[in-house]
Specification:
Elements (H helix, E strand, L loop, with lengths): L1 H17 L3 E8 L14 H19 L1 H6 L16 E4 L1 E2 L9 E5 L6 E3 L22 E2 L12 E2 L2 E8 L2 E15 L5 E16 L11 E6 L7 H4 L1 H4 L2 E5 L7 E6 L13 E6 L5 E2 L1 E6 L2 E2 L18 E3 L6 E3 L1 H19 L14 E2 L14 E6 L7 E5 L2 H4 E3 L6 E3 L1 E3 L8 E3 L1 H4 L2 E6 L4 E6 L3
Parallel strand pairs: 4-11, 5-10, 18-26, 19-25
Antiparallel strand pairs: 1-2, 1-13, 2-4, 3-9, 5-11, 6-9, 7-8, 8-9, 9-10, 12-13, 12-27, 14-15, 14-28, 15-18, 16-17, 16-21, 20-24, 21-22, 23-24, 27-28
């Protein structure tokens, strides 16, 4: 009788371990010195080039037409189409110690996968992962209801994922994932599906020597996404607040994903389409109180090819906007500094950004940067707007060893229509809450 009671109690406690509603993950900038992904030989200009091209690559390949073509006119030896500004880690398996690969954090895909040790071909990876060594790992059968689309690979449920020129193929498996919550407790999730990449073509994560990035952690919405698989526990909610200066931030899920304001910092909420890569409805851009003459249709969602639209993408380092919108923004900023302080910009090819100056506003002389505001529609069909004023420190970045600054918002490459994306640098010191169940995005200024 006592033995039966003890077994019942253990089963009850074990079930409680898995019934968690919150967890967190790191958001580590790809240029963090701790990762050592960027070569030590990089100059300041090399680093700027690297970060700039991450943004242009993501905007270019967010356009499905470009992704299908497999073109990349913004190739450099330092970055490629799989680049993202943040990487993270997830832990799977009940081994001691468990497996904890480093992966790209990507809101534009719903597939989570890692390269496995039996791959052919493979990309360079410092530590290979053999999922078969995990005591709790099993392959997903093709008959599993989660096997969508139904692809067979070596008798198991298979998967394919394409990223411009890069593509991977392999099988889906199931294992126990574990994450820490804000209290430092470890929370476990059983039978989570993720991909084991066997045939990996055209991938170059980080530098070839000593690469630690093993794959991709997909935060997009889809049948295989972590958001969908754990929807009961985390209720479609995640939140983050990006720190400045290469600091590691935290992404919170479920009950830990909260947003709080006060009288000085109002929480604002707008409609979002999370099934279209976290699209939001941008109506206009305002510079120093004046609304720019931008055709608002360039920000309307083209759900078929994503040639238009405005997306929240922390994977892009800098904000990228359609060429026609950037011309208006660039012109308004130039007019501001010319009329107020008689400043002329540097030659456009002097630095990694299109608009730079060799001096900075002096507050003691009453000089200041122009305000830049993104005007969002509250919801489709709603005439009301919500304003997001970007912090001038995130928009006008100083360049090193020079008493000057650049406008750190880029025009799209190779396409005049878009898409446009709000990048990580312009999201710094803002708390964002994504509620995918309610299709709402909330934000508030915060010191991260």
């Amino acid at each position: 009788m006592m033995l039966s009671f003890v077994l019942h109690l253990l089963l009850h406690v074990t079930s409680l371990i898995f019934q968690t509603n919150a967890f967190s993950m790191k958001m580590i900038p790809i240029d963090s010195p701790d990762l050592q992904i960027i070569p030590k030989t990089f100059t300041t200009k090399d680093r700027a080039h690297f970060l700039r091209n991450i943004s242009l690559s993501r905007a270019f390949y967010a356009n499905k037409r470009n992704a299908k073509l497999g073109l990349n006119s913004i190739q450099t030896p330092y970055t490629n189409i799989q680049s993202s500004y943040f990487v993270t880690q997830f832990t799977f398996g009940r081994n001691n110690p468990p497996f904890t690969p480093t992966v790209v954090l990507d809101t534009s895909t719903d597939v989570t996968w890692i390269q496995c040790s039996k791959c052919d071909p493979c990309f360079t990876l410092k530590d290979s992962f053999s999922v078969d060594d995990s005591k709790s790992y099993s392959r997903m059968a093709p008959e599993d209801t989660r096997c969508k689309p139904k692809i067979s690979y070596e008798g198991s449920c298979g998967f394919k994922a394409t990223y411009g020129k890069g593509h991977t193929q392999g099988y889906l498996g199931l294992d126990t994932f574990s994450f820490n919550d804000t209290q430092g407790e470890t929370n476990y999730f059983t039978n989570v599906a993720f991909g084991c990449g066997i045939r990996n073509h055209e991938f170059e994560f980080g530098s070839a020597a000593g690469n630690v990035i093993a794959g991709i952690f997909g935060l997009g919405i889809g049948p295989r996404s972590i958001m969908t698989q754990l929807s009961t526990e985390i209720k479609g909610r995640f939140s983050y607040c990006i720190k400045p200066d290469q600091g590691t931030s935290t992404i919170l899920y479920g009950d830990d994903a909260q947003i709080i304001g006060d009288d000085a910092r109002k929480v604002q909420t707008i409609a979002m389409n999370s099934e279209a890569r976290y699209h939001v409805y941008l109506a206009a851009i305002t510079v120093d109180g004046s609304r720019l003459a931008i055709d608002p249709t360039v920000f309307e969602l083209d759900a078929q090819d994503f040639t238009r639209g405005f997306f929240i993408d922390p994977g892009a380092t800098f904000t990228v906007i359609t060429n026609t919108a950037h011309m208006e923004l660039d012109g308004a900023v130039q007019t501001f500094f010319r009329e107020k302080y008689q400043w002329d910009p540097l030659p456009s090819d002097a630095y990694m950004f299109d608009l730079c100056y060799d001096k900075v506003p002096d507050a003691t002389k009453g000089q200041y940067y122009p305000s830049i505001v993104f005007n969002f529609i509250k919801a489709p069909g709603d005439t009301g707007e919500v304003q997001l004023e970007l912090d001038s420190k995130n928009v006008f970045g100083n360049f090193v060893n020079k008493d000057g600054f650049c406008l750190q918002i880029l025009p799209t490459a190779n396409s005049s229509d878009g898409p446009s994306i709000l990048g990580a640098f312009q999201q710094r010191n803002l708390q964002f809450l994504f509620d995918t169940d309610a299709q709402l995005l909330s934000f508030v200024p915060k010191t991260c």
